[in-house]
Write a structure and sequence with these properties.
This protein has about 190 residues and is α+β, with helices and mostly antiparallel strands. Helices cover about 60% and strands about 15% of the residues. A three-stranded antiparallel sheet has the order 1-3-2. α2 runs antiparallel to α3 (about 100-120). It is elongated and about 60 Å long.
Length: about 190
C-alpha cells in the first residue's frame, strides 16, 4: 500500500512540475456570433464578380506569398462563379433554340467565351488587401485580398462570342439573352 501511495505521489508531483515549466501560447478564438471586422470593406459585388480570398502568413516574410495565394484563391472562386452564371444563362437561352447545329455552336461559343474570360481574370487587379491576426496560430496573420471582375466584361464577351458565330447570330436576340444572363446572375447570388 505504501508503494502505491508513493508511486501516486511521485506521479502527481511530476505532473505538477511539468505543467509549471511549460509555456504555451494561448490563441483567442473569435466566437462565431461575433462578426470579425475584415479589411477591404469596399470589396462589394454590385456590378462586379467579387471575392475576398484568404491565406495565412506565418511571418512578415511570408506576406507577399500569402497575398499571391489569396489573390489566386479569389480568382479561382470568381472563375467558378462566372462559369456557373454563363453556363446557366446560355443553357436557358439555348433551350429556345432547338436545332442541332445551333445547340452545338452555342456550346462551342460558350466554351470559347469562358476561356477568354479566364484570360481576363488572370490579369484582374487586386482591388485591396489587408491583414487580421490569425485565430488558429499565434503570431500568424490572415491575409485578405479582394479581386473584382466587372459583370459587363463577362456579359460583353459572351455576346461578342455568340454574335461572331454565323449559325447563331441569325437568331441571336441580345436583349433576350441579357434577360437570361442577369436572371442567372441573381439565381446564383440567391443560392450563395
Amino acid at each position: 500500500m505504501k508503494r502505491i501511495s508513493l508511486f501516486l505521489s511521485v506521479a502527481l508531483l511530476s505532473i505538477i512540475a511539468m505543467s509549471c515549466g511549460s509555456s504555451k501560447a494561448v490563441v483567442n478564438n473569435t466566437p462565431a456570433s461575433q462578426p470579425m471586422a475584415l479589411p477591404c470593406p469596399e470589396c462589394t459585388e454590385g456590378d462586379f464578380f467579387a471575392y475576398l480570398g484568404q491565406a495565412v502568413a506565418e511571418s512578415d516574410y511570408d506576406l507577399q506569398d500569402a497575398r499571391i495565394f489569396a489573390a489566386q484563391a479569389a480568382r479561382d472562386e470568381i472563375q467558378a462563379m462566372v462559369e456557373s452564371v454563363v453556363t446557366r444563362s446560355v443553357d436557358n437561352f439555348s433551350q429556345k433554340h432547338r436545332s442541332g447545329t445551333e445547340v452545338q455552336s452555342i456550346a462551342k461559343q460558350t466554351i470559347q467565351s469562358i476561356n477568354v474570360i479566364k484570360g481576363k481574370l488572370k490579369g484582374a487587379p487586386i482591388k485591396c488587401w489587408g491583414t487580421t491576426p490569425s485565430t488558429s496560430k499565434a503570431g500568424a496573420q490572415n491575409v485578405w485580398v479582394c479581386v473584382q471582375l466587372p459583370v459587363k466584361t463577362v456579359y460583353d464577351e459572351v455576346v461578342k462570342s455568340m454574335a461572331a458565330d454565323e449559325t447563331i447570330k441569325i437568331d441571336f436576340a441580345q436583349e433576350q439573352y441579357k434577360d437570361d444572363f442577369y436572371k442567372a446572375l441573381e439565381e446564383y447570388k440567391n443560392i450563395q
